[in-house]
Fold this protein.
Amino acid sequence: MNRSGMLAALRGIVWRDLLLALRRRSDVATTVFFFAIVTSLFPLGVGPEPVVLRTIGPGVLWVAALLSCMLSLGRLFAADYLDGVLEQMVLTPEPLVMLVIGKAFAHWIVAGLPVVLLSPLLGLQFGLGSDSLGVMALSLLLGTPTLSLIGSIAAALTLGVRGSSLLIALLVLPLFIPVLIFGAGAVTSSASGIGAEAHLSLLGASLVFALAFAPWATAAALRIAVE
Amino acid sequence: MSVMGENGCGKTTLLRLLCGLTAPEHGRIYWQGRDISQLKELYFAQLTYIGHRNALKDDLTPAENLRASTHIAGSGISFTAARSALDAVGLGGNSHLLATRLLSEGQKRRAALARLWCCERPLWVLDEPFTALDAYAAQILRERLQEHVKNGGLVVLATHQEVDVEAKSVGQLRLAG
């Protein structure tokens, strides 16, 4: 159980999950299109009033990011659970936590990163200024990994449960509230000239907190699910 | 050691207990004199478990699957090593380029069993390894088991057929329903 073995296992699982995502591009596309369409519906529905759009923009983008990240959470462990790979993961001589971190990281690359990269473009629809767009992307960059990590707990807890995707939403959305408040707050306060540092620091802190605790909780839930 | 018995008599449960996947309600399981629930990762490093599910990803090729599962098992191998292990189970040629979902049931079982050719762990726990295998593949597997036992390895397998492997000690456990 040395460090290089741990890193090799981590690299291995990230490589495998990204390869799987590459073979099933439609899953990735679903997340991205969902995000793009939901954020585009709001300007169409609310009307072209610039002041209103600028006010609701950060919140809408953040909520859409939350929901699109959540769409793919149900698949995080479900396939591994069904085909028996999860049993092999639990029997790994490396710490199971490392594999969980690897899976959450791969989930973020597939579901979180596209959202981060698209957000400045979609933010233009709400008439956000270039500063706000930058803060928007930065806040999502700090916030979406937290979503993947916290979401992994719910995904592990609901394994083998009927209607698990709905249950994941019920479990996870309340936990996402702080991230949503700080994330959307960062953009709003930067637009109003207060500066986003405080909100961004809090987002960073919740990411560190999630990284420190979520993988352990997920690993414990996975052991129970396999039993 | 082969574990035999009717369907539903608890063979798989016994094997899962031996692996530490399921915790026993009463009693303890010892490996080299130490409780496996305390050894955990140290014990898992000695163990290869192949369950009745193949643990293969449908969208990956057998070679990629094999590499992924060895990475998970903490001893990643190269593509060449994965290829030669697959050759050994008769999945050479082009079949390693196909996605696993296109393979037949027996080929999938062979791809899962290829893990036995690329790891050196003393304890193998195999749940009905002969299922879906043809006579030729079953013979290859028997030879591999024979080799493992000859090198001082330990095999526990659940099966419905007699396994003629020569070893210093061959145990047979029959579970009644």
Remarks:
- Chain A has one domain: 3-226.
- The two ends of chain A are 24 Å apart (CA to CA).
- DSSP finds nine helices and no strands in chain A.
